[in-house]
Amino acid sequence: MKKHSFLTFVLAAFAVLATTLTGAQAETVTVKHSSGTTQIASTPKKIVVFDLASIDTLNRLGVSGIIGVPGGVAYPAYIKAYEDKSYTRAGTLFEPDYETVASLEPDMIIVAGRSQAKYAELAKIAPTIDLTVSTDNYLSDVTRNVTLLGQIFDRQEQAKAEISKLEATLADIKKLTAGKGNGLLILTTGGRMSAFGPGSRFGLLYSGFGIVPADPDLSVGNHGQPVAAEYILKTNPDWLFVIDRDAAIGREGQAASQLLDNVIVNKTKAAQRKHIIYLDPQNWYLVGGSLSGLHETAEQIAAAFK
């Protein structure tokens, strides 16, 4: 009886030791992100992503392994392939389906922006990182996110190339927009308008693309400052940039172009010079922080300013 107990003890001790050695030998990466620090197993094989910009970055870096994605939203063309049924719908951009996520047994989960609030709960299922981009350090955070994903998936060189390409693109755009007047960005939805200035959720237009703000004193609220056509005429921007939220989310209603086609807005310099630019609503409202989206915006602005 004693011999049997001793043998049981030795086998149990060996099992614990083997487990410890395996854990010590496993390669991990320490990732500092928007919600803290997380230990991630190097090169995760199964990834659930609740952020469209991160899907785009992984795709551009040539990373495979995405198994779960958000549903209930139309994907932009550059990541349209992830709408395929082979990718499990693991919830929405706002609300994960925790049971589905757990059943996928992911090695890593990515949240950002709209899904940031679910970080703590998802972290109970698997190692989770938060790649939310802040309004104060938008481009720095985009660079950080690309660098982190390059580190985790051993795509450092690809990440460096992507960052260099983006920096060069934005530098060229700033040269192109310099000295060509000021601009105002508005978002339309449900027949209403809000204006966004520097430091707001869409402040990248000014800080990243070099547009001089027509009204630098706009409030920096997440939903912008409610305005009417009279405000646009009073501000009288050289360029008017428009995001149609209803078009971004697929909601029926009055299109931004119809809302702005009135006698008041048509008196502005932007309207009279045909300087009203309707920004891609998916890139600006749904995705945000996407490498492909930033390049597409750069191309759109370049075409208008040449």
From TrEMBL:
<dbReference type="GO" id="GO:0030288">
    <property type="term" value="C:outer membrane-bounded periplasmic space"/>
</dbReference>
<feature type="domain" description="Fe/B12 periplasmic-binding">
    <location>
        <begin position="46"/>
        <end position="306"/>
    </location>
</feature>
<keyword id="KW-0813">Transport</keyword>
<keyword id="KW-0406">Ion transport</keyword>
<keyword id="KW-0410">Iron transport</keyword>
<dbReference type="InterPro" id="IPR033870">
    <property type="entry name" value="FatB"/>
</dbReference>
<protein>
    <submittedName>
        <fullName>Periplasmic binding protein</fullName>
    </submittedName>
</protein>
<dbReference type="InterPro" id="IPR051313">
    <property type="entry name" value="Bact_iron-sidero_bind"/>
</dbReference>
<comment type="similarity">
    <text>Belongs to the bacterial solute-binding protein 8 family.</text>
</comment>
<dbReference type="InterPro" id="IPR002491">
    <property type="entry name" value="ABC_transptr_periplasmic_BD"/>
</dbReference>
<dbReference type="GO" id="GO:1901678">
    <property type="term" value="P:iron coordination entity transport"/>
</dbReference>
<keyword id="KW-0732">Signal</keyword>
<feature type="signal peptide">
    <location>
        <begin position="1"/>
        <end position="26"/>
    </location>
</feature>
<keyword id="KW-0408">Iron</keyword>
<dbReference type="Pfam" id="PF01497">
    <property type="entry name" value="Peripla_BP_2"/>
</dbReference>
